[in-house]
Fold:
Amino acid sequence: MSIRPRHLMSRPLHGGTNIAELRSLGLRPEDVLDFSASINPLGAPPAAALAMNGVDLAAYPDTECTALREALADRLDVSTENVSGEYILVGNGSTELIHLTARAYLHSGATAAIFTPTFGEFEAACAMQNARVIGIAANEGDQFSWRIKKAVSTIVEQSPTLVFLCNPNNPTGRYMSEEDVREIASALPDDSLLLLDEAYLPFVDTRWNSFPLLDLGNVALLRSMTKDYALTALRLGYMLASPDVVERIRAQQHSWSVNALAQTAGIAALADTAHVEDGRRAVQDAKRYLIDELAALGLHFIPSAANFLLVHVGSAKVLRHMLLKRHHIIVRDCASFGLPDYIRIGIRTKKDCNRLVAALRDVMEKS
Structure:
């Protein structure tokens, strides 16, 4: 368990291109191959861009995201007596929903628990509410898995109001079982919430159905359409939770949070029923290749259920810079996760991964 003082927090770092950095090297975004972001390698569905052409830019967006929530309920097949479109909250990316949840459940002096290492926005959202943050750290020596009994004991002892768990986890790719997640949820005190971030779930080959967790009443499922549908530029995410939880969090959201372009593109993307599965298969194929090649290079990586790999390389900062400068390839330096010896590689197409492997081989031979 670890507690980080608020004054040590800084703005979270994320994957993706840094325009200022590229300009300093005389590069443009189109000049680089980006493995630092973990999204559908097929890009966005073509129908999404076409649909946005019909948006009236002079009209206000639907502040309730009615049509998109209905499309989500239909696509997810959750229009049952337990979960309907009314139990879905759409946000400006999953990051907005993370911050809204922290605002709804935390206050100065409240306690939040975060399963670490993980997405930096969890801790940032807690810090903005002046909450006390407890880190439940994974065991690096055990391939970054958590000791569930110890985690449950910590939750019972500390009584956090809000618990953040990313499953599969970013950046390790570890995927927790339903039994373990239920045990964690059952340990929460009354009026507390487990926010289960499932942004990378669509890329898991063998996954369990998390919707029954909603019956517990203290679990919210967080999804990100910027990952599975590659709508990264538009910022689009959603939450599934009980009506009481949705209303509590929705009360913190300002009007017109999700613009009309994002709503329209989201509806069109959901209508392409094959796109996410095609992307998952592309990831699966490229991932097998990349795993074999990384092993051949003598690089240790963490077994991952997601569409990225956490790879031990020594100095991640140095390797990242060399890959970018020499080969115009970007990987994620994981120092911001507290893992300065690791990089995270987002799985792209097999062709792109072939270029990455060649670049890694070159850099390692010359270093």
User: Anything to note?
Assistant: The mean pLDDT is 92. Residues 182 and 213 are 7 Å apart (CA to CA). Residues 275-296 form the longest helix (22 residues). The longest strand covers residues 111-116.
